Amino acid sequence: MDIISVKDYYEMSKKTCEYVVDQVNKLDRPVLGLATGSTPEGLYRQLIGQYKEGHVSFNHVTTFNLDEYVGLAADDPNSYRYYMNEKLFNHIDLPEDRAFLPNGDEEDLAKECRDYEMLIRDSGHIDLQILGLGLNGHIGFNEPGTAFDSRTHIVELDASTRQANARFFPTMDDVPEKAITMGIDTIMESKQIVLLVSGEKKADAVHQLVNGEITEEFPASILQKHQNVTVVADKGALSRL
Ligand code: GLP
């Protein structure tokens, strides 16, 4: 696991953007795995900037997001589809039909999980997966206790995760209880992974990610076994290493 230490959130976003742009320009038909949450917002702003300045095009790119809430329609401002449209997709030339998220509003969610897996497989797998890190070590929405061999599945969100994400919703009761997420095994099949982490509140999680034992109780710990993981972290996030 490579660790790139940067000064702050802005530098984390900038460094990662440079890397993503380099890969997108280099690869023939790049497949990107994307994440939501507050951490990648700066990266998306930077990517839009690079696109507008003509340094990169996304017209040959396919993207797969990690996760989506169950029960929120695509036009719900709290859905991850809405987030991605607002924060990235609406501002770049990524073809609309190449930007995939699981659909948490499907009736047959088991089928949706299978179909999502198939789409990823048919795309030839993810070249570069962007990850954030939950305070409890979750990646995507794979909460502690998720099997390392899991594929795309439905999860019950941890009380702590609902609490952490409640800031985006009018009240705690509005935070969905379930989500659909790529599984840990699905994520581990990505050829490269870049995990972004910023701020002191994540310092314990980063410590466990890097030095802790590999256990399903801390899902991100499995990344220690991946051949090509880069953690881009700022001083605050690295303060416990
Ligand atoms: C959310 C998302 C994750 C994200 C994590 C951290 O629940 N499902 O993909 O990485 O929590 O969020 P943040 O970046 O806001 O700290």
UniProtKB/TrEMBL annotation:
Active-site feature positions: 67 (proton acceptor), 136 (for ring-opening step), 138 (proton acceptor), 143 (for ring-opening step)
Keywords: Carbohydrate metabolism, Hydrolase
Keyword Hydrolase included in the entry's annotation: yes
Any one GO molecular function term: glucosamine-6-phosphate deaminase activity
Pathway: Amino-sugar metabolism; N-acetylneuraminate degradation; D-fructose 6-phosphate from N-acetylneuraminate: step 5/5
Pfam families listed in its UniProt record: Glucosamine_iso (PF01182)
Functional summary from the UniProt entry: Catalyzes the reversible isomerization-deamination of glucosamine 6-phosphate (GlcN6P) to form fructose 6-phosphate (Fru6P) and ammonium ion.
The family this protein is said to belong to: Belongs to the glucosamine/galactosamine-6-phosphate isomerase family. NagB subfamily.
Identification of the protein by name: Glucosamine-6-phosphate deaminase
Organism expressing this protein natively: Lentibacillus halodurans
Gene that this sequence comes from: nagB
